[in-house]
Amino acid sequence: MPTALTTARRTVVVSGDPLTTRDVIAVANGNARVRLTAAATETMAKARASVEALRDSPIATYGLNTGVGALADQVISPDRLLALQRSLLRSHAAGAGPRVEREVVRAMMLLRTRTLATGVAGVRPAIAHALIGLLNADLVPIVQEYGSLGCSGDLAPLAAVALALTGEGRLVAADGTESDAASALRRAGLQPLVLDAGEGLALINGTDGMLGMLVLAIDRLARLLDVADITAAMSVEALQGTDRVFAAELQALRPHRGQAHSAARISALLHDSPILAAARGRGVQDAYSLRCAPQVHGAAGDTVDHARGVAARELASVIDNPAVLPDGRLESNGNFHGAPLAYVLDFLAIAAADVASMCERRTDRLLDPARSAGLPAFLAADSGVDSGLMIAHYTQASVVADLKRLAAPASVDSIPTSAMQEDHVSMGWAAGSKLLRALDGLTTVLAIELLTAARALDLRAPLRPSPATGAVVAALREHVPGPGPDRHLAPEIAATAHLIRDGALSAAAHQVTNPSP
């Protein structure tokens, strides 16, 4: 992926005010540079002066001149405060497992920068500038999946980032080149940080990883729900169902916003379909997976809207402990607990699994000659010799089964840690991690339904699909051929999933249903 330095289309300004989801996504994807305002620099410097006044005080202040977690009662002598910062990052950068995706780490870095810019963390402006330096140089610390319990902040993930700022750990450049942090910083013209009292804790005591995953997941799931309406419309059409059930007057009887929106999209996609026109009057009611698509897809959409509200409040929040208050006091608090994020991350995983489950049922119906309204078994060219899309459905079913397992909530699985000081944790990081995996799975499920429905529509010739679904089939056929003898299907599934991710298929549909003026 190109670097932010070469592809930047705009600059995201960090002032301490709430960031927008658009800001977070742009920086996460490497499509924007980051700049700290002069006002934020001044705010941070003023807050730091309050911290400096307390650093040599005999009064114990958590994280400033004490240990952390269960060691909070151990007061650290002034001559050991810098050593505390080094030890804190080294000990907390204890992650394990697969690497976290680049976009999540970049989002996490931006969100931590924004909290620091409010002054509540009480760090020097140089700390925020160091994070911005990494972002603008497109250097991403290696962060591993396991290590955050979603409470006291995303500790191990953020510690991996903070450690890289000091010249330890590993960094990955935009071209995928990995090197030790000290060398990468030097090549980018960046200086390693030497942390002062309290700054190590301030870099790791936030829910920024969970929030970054939520913002990215909301954007991805909203796009996938748009595709789910497209695949549902194509399946209804290919199965010669009815579009009458999607009428606005019927949806108004149950006034959920998401349901109405989904039904309106499906209706628009099926408008002027010769296949449906030829099939009118043949059946009384379609199966639930066809007839109730707006009710399920719409409920998922309403869940996304709820998640947007949570994300907006979190983007306006300042997560740090202790917090520097406007009058200069440092106060301990519990705002680092990730429950608000964990619950909604789990909720989105449930919605994703259920949408996938309905997609799989429509795919199965398209492949079963007993229920597909005259289509050949498994849509095979020469049934018996050819298996058609039989095993593509197996793949889809296996992914759906995985999504159902991923829908089990992480947020109810608290494990006490730190000698019972941290005796209830949110597991929000785990909820976010499994949600992103679930959205990858939903993409595959939708790709297989789309492949199946497109082949079924081709097999309805000489009857033609609607203008909108026909445009989707045409866009797909630029990359994946139509019906024919069996061929290697895995590359076709991957190609279709790519077209879903990059928005090409949605764009093809919307050029018909919502043409630009």
UniProtKB/TrEMBL annotation:
Compartments, as annotated in UniProt: Cytoplasm
Lineage top rank: taxon: Bacteria
Listed EC numbers: 4.3.1.3
Key word Magnesium present: no
Record field: catalytic activity: L-histidine = trans-urocanate + NH4(+)
The keyword Lyase appears for this protein: yes
A Pfam short name: Lyase_aromatic
Keyword terms: Histidine metabolism, Lyase
SUPFAM superfamilies assigned to the protein according to its UniProt record, in alphabetical order: L-aspartase-like (SSF48557)
InterPro entries, per database record: Aromatic_Lyase, Fumarase/histidase_N, HutH, L-Aspartase-like, Phe/His_NH3-lyase_AS
Pathway recorded for this protein: Amino-acid degradation; L-histidine degradation into L-glutamate; N-formimidoyl-L-glutamate from L-histidine: step 1/3
Chief localisation class: cytoplasm
Family: Belongs to the PAL/histidase family.
Stated name of the protein: Histidine ammonia-lyase
Protein encoded by which gene: hutH_2
